[in-house]
Write a structure and sequence with these properties.
Number of helices: 1
Distance between the termini: 69 Å
Shape: flat
Structural class: mainly beta
Helix content: under 10%
Strand content: over 45%
Strand order of the largest sheet: 1-3-5-7-9-11-13-15
């Protein structure tokens, strides 16, 4: 009897342990109106998901901080003007690196319409993807991906600015196997891509612009 009970307890322990290992940490915020502010912070947890949805007409700000995480997703969707989005994802600045932490990171920002919106994504880790889609004028995008840890790399960043006037987009990447693309449609827009990393490293960068008086710059070294 004691042997059977011990085996049952062991089986239950393994089952619950496996469930705990696969558990997901999730947080979502939804706001409607003007001049709203929202924050989500997830620290030192794995398999994280964070999402913020904001609908309004002016001045909404959203921030997601996912620190010391892996297998993590973060997204923000805004429909307004004058909004700010900040997503920080991966390892802590100056923190330790290894092959299992700070990897499989996905961040996306969609600012559906408006003007004067800002989106900033910072990812410290490997196997990271960042995507920003904006519609409107005088918008700004900054994506910074850093994978300088051991075997760090596989970074992908994509920015699309549609029906835009006077907007700026910048992608900065450091690591191995880097891919960056900026697409702008409109006038007086500026696009910049900078890629650096340790050799051997593969770089792919492209900028596509439709319209007049646009400026494009790519630097790889």
């Amino acid at each position: 009897m004691s042997i059977k009970l011990h085996a049952l307890a062991l089986g239950l322990g393994l089952a619950f342990g496996a469930t705990g290992a696969m558990a997901q940490v999730s947080a979502t915020i939804e706001q409607r109106g003007e001049d709203n502010t929202s924050y989500i912070t997830q620290d030192s947890v794995q398999n994280t998901r964070a999402g913020i949805t904001v609908e309004g007409s002016w001045g909404n700000n959203a921030t997601i901080n996912q620190v010391n995480v892996s297998n993590s997703q973060a997204w923000v969707s805004q429909s307004a003007s004058g909004g700010d989005v900040v997503i920080n994802q991966g390892g802590a600045a100056g923190g330790s690196w290894n092959n299992t932490q700070h990897r499989n990171l996905t961040a996306s920002v969609t600012q559906h319409w408006g003007w004067g919106n800002e989106a900033e994504i910072t990812q410290l880790g490997r196997d990271a993807t960042a995507t920003v889609n904006q519609s409107g004028s005088w918008n700004t995008v900054a994506i910074n991906q850093n994978a300088t840890g051991r075997n760090g790399g596989n970074l992908v960043a994509t920015v699309t600015q549609f029906l835009s006037y006077g907007s700026d987009a910048e992608i900065i990447q450091s690591g191995r196997n880097l891919t960056a693309h900026i697409s702008q449609q409109g006038w007086n827009n500026e696009a910049t891509i900078r890629q650096t990393g340790s050799r051997p490293s593969g770089y792919t960068a492209s900028i596509t612009q439709w319209g007049d008086r646009n400026v494009a710059s790519i630097t790889q070294r």
